[in-house]
């Protein structure tokens, strides 16, 4: 009888370990999928830059430094989650400066292509916020599993570590760039 109880306990622990390990793998894949969603939206946003730049260049020849800055930042989608978040914070600020520039050029502000680019950017920013929320919720679930007992025993055994959220240090950065 004691052997059956011992075997049942071992079987229960083994089943728990398999289920928990598979949960780690599932959450890691969900997190990867969520990061992919962020990457797609960031790429879409950065792909708008050439169109925006060519349009603004026609109106603001003397704003060369600002235009060069957005071109430089457009190629900066590498690093860990925190580095990319910081890079995107700077990129949003630069985009905001470009849209503020439109205030000085009423003909640019009224340009149909410029308005279309503004609308596209607003849609991308909305999608990016949704992707960021999904990513952060999957990271939250993963981190809870990594840090909770008894699953943290398997996390340590199989080297599952807490992941960083895609956070913006300043809540103002989460807002859409000003596009008046």
A few lines on this structure:
The chain has 180 residues and is an all-alpha fold.
Model description:
The protein is rod-shaped. The protein has 180 residues and is an all-alpha fold.
Unreliable stretches covering 5 or more consecutive residues: 176-180
User: Residue share in helices?
Assistant: over 70%
Shape: rod-shaped
- SS elements, strand count: 0
Give me the Rg, rounded: 23 Å
Number of helical stretches of at least 4 residues: 6
Structural class: mainly alpha
Largest sheet properties: none
Topology:
Elements: H1 2-59, H2 64-74, H3 81-101, H4 106-109, H5 112-147, H6 151-157
Helix pairs in contact: 1-2, 1-5, 2-3
Task: Please tag this protein with its features.
rod-shaped, mainly alpha, 180 residues, single chain, 6 helices
């Amino acid at each position: 009888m004691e052997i059956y109880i011992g075997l049942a306990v071992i079987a229960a622990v083994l089943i728990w370990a398999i289920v928990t390990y598979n949960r780690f793998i599932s959450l890691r894949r969900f997190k990867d999928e969520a990061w992919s969603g962020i990457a797609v939206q960031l790429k879409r946003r950065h792909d708008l830059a050439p169109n925006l730049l060519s349009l603004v260049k026609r109106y603001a020849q003397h704003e060369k430094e600002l235009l060069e800055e957005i071109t430089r930042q457009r190629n900066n989608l590498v690093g860990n989650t925190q580095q990319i978040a910081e890079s995107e914070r700077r990129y949003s600020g630069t985009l905001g400066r470009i849209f503020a520039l439109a205030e000085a050029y009423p003909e640019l502000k009224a340009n149909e292509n410029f308005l279309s680019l503004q609308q596209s950017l607003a849609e991308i920013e909305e999608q990016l916020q949704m992707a960021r929320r999904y990513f952060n919720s999957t990271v939250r679930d993963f981190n809870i599993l990594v840090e909770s007992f008894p699953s943290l025993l398997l996390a340590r055994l199989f080297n599952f570590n807490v992941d960083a959220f895609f956070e913006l240090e300043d809540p103002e950065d989460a807002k859409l760039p000003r596009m008046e």
